[in-house]
């Protein structure tokens, strides 16, 4: 089958990929437009980028989003991995079906429903318990709830295919189950943990709908600020900001992917060496 | 110190026994409780608040349960919100409109995504990983910003109109922004990777010897596709379709940024009810009815997804 890809399939693939990428490249191109009129090309300029540095509203929002992103992705990797271990290693326990459902549902649940229900919970909790105040804390909790689902799905498939013989050997040699897991299986699922940390980070950094619901006065994340600007139409400083975010995230993902693949290949090579 | 050792050994053994039997709950409980409290229980709150009434206070709705000074508990259920949803036709129409939009966008995504996934699945392993990366990368970058980037292409003075004018195909710019077409375009553009990836996952696992057998027995390629490839890729078709269909029904960003006033999808109605009218009880009722409509598709998705994960 290797060389029997029909020209029809190839052309659809090319069109599809073009549709995915052309708008992004056009956006990046226009971000260097000197003209304030977004439709007229007024020559190459980096004015809009230098203006960003002096925009306090955007800088504050970016800093808040980054802080949220780091806490969310770390929390999500911990909770999501625990859920993945539960689902893969403990075949039968009370609440297994419930956990499976709660891990899969956030992936398809429309954000608008998740957002409104979580806000109602937070408001009621604040009324009854005096905690949490709407803002950083509530956004972090709401993001972890859906990001950890992505982590679980990623780690789950990795964990299911992981070789358990090393872990069993470690236990035979007297390691406790936790110790054996940390020494043998954890390194082998590390790439999955890394990529799901990164995925949670980008999902959190990008979320608009859930953040808008659960956030409080004074806590505007970057997507919230961008959305309020974008509603008014295309503007050159948003072009610059958007290009910057897309390029940074894209480069980060590619770099991380490359590093993870390299360490993975190294690990496979080491394992082969050890077998000889 | 043999005696001392014995004294310590007993409780330690007991502790080990306890850990062995119940230790797994230390792993299961944190995610289970977190998701229970912050994902599932919120739906119960939304259900309860959909029976409340609006009030001028913080939070802006009345209590369902109240305790009077003489310790009588009062339960006040307001069925007005639900009745309102079924009598004011805006809600029914926007539910139907959202379903229609999501359904047709899913079909178009499938029509474009299937050949793409098939093409990727039939290339060599090294090309596959590069192509997959190209498909996944937009998913990692911002969703909101990609919708915004699309606006730069299709607005009146955007690249598409400029190109068509320059080529002489049209003599005045097309109005694409703020139309139904723009909403479809936005959904297909944003959700296409969600269709391609699960389809690729099933098509990649397909046993090629079946296709070769069909060819040996005289099946033309289109016949082999209909008889072998298509039925075997059904799990991927369903998973991909649900990953597009369900979030698309509740889409808010795309109809707001790209659509016109006619493109009243349910996500937009809910948002306006909440942030515009500040009617939290009606917004909760909209969300609950919406959720009830989604139970079927979500259950279908779960069913195929768990089956695929276990195989």
Structure description:
The complex is a heterodimer of chains A (276) and B (311). With 276 residues, chain A is mainly α. Chain A has one domain (7-275): MetI-like (MetI-like fold, Orthogonal Bundle), CATH 1.10.3720. Helices cover 79% and strands 0% of the residues of chain A. In chain A, helix 2 packs across helix 11, helix 6 (136-161) crosses helix 8 and helix 7 (165-172) packs across helix 8 (177-206). The model of chain A has no long low-confidence stretch (mean pLDDT 89). Chain B is mostly helical and 311 residues long. Chain B has 2 domains: 2-75, no CATH class; 85-310, MetI-like fold (Orthogonal Bundle). Chain B is built from 14 helices and 2 strands, in the order ααββαααααααααααα. Chain B has helices at residues 2-22, 24-49, 80-87, 89-121, 125-140, 143-154, 159-167, 180-205, 208-216, 221-232, 234-249, 253-257, 266-276, 280-310, and strands at 65-67, 73-75. Chain B has a two-stranded antiparallel sheet. The longest helix of chain B has 33 residues, at 89-121. Chains A and B meet through helix 1, helix 3, helix 4, helix 5 and helix 6 of A and helix 2, helix 4, helix 5, helix 6 and helix 8 of B.
CATH topology of chain A: MetI-like fold
| CATH superfamily placement of the largest domain in chain B | MetI-like
The tally of domains of chain B stands at 2
The major β-sheet of chain A equals:
none
Radius of gyration of chain B: 27 Å
Give the count of helical stretches of chain A. Answer: 11
Note the overall shape of chain A: globular
Task: Give the overall pLDDT of chain B as a whole number.
Answer: 86
In short:
The complex is a heterodimer of chains A (276) and B (311). Chain A has 276 residues and is mainly α. Chain A contains 11 helices and no strands.
List the helices and strands and how they pair.
The complex is a heterodimer of chains A (276) and B (311).
Chain A: H1 7-31, H2 47-53, H3 56-89, H4 96-108, H5 111-129, H6 136-161, H7 165-172, H8 177-206, H9 209-214, H10 222-230, H11 236-275
Chain B: H1 2-22, H2 24-49, E1 65-67, E2 73-75, H3 80-87, H4 89-121, H5 125-140, H6 143-154, H7 159-167, H8 180-205, H9 208-216, H10 221-232, H11 234-249, H12 253-257, H13 266-276, H14 280-310
Antiparallel strand pairs in B: 1-2
Helix pairs in contact in B: 2-14, 3-14, 4-8, 4-11, 5-8, 6-8, 8-11, 9-10, 11-14, 13-14
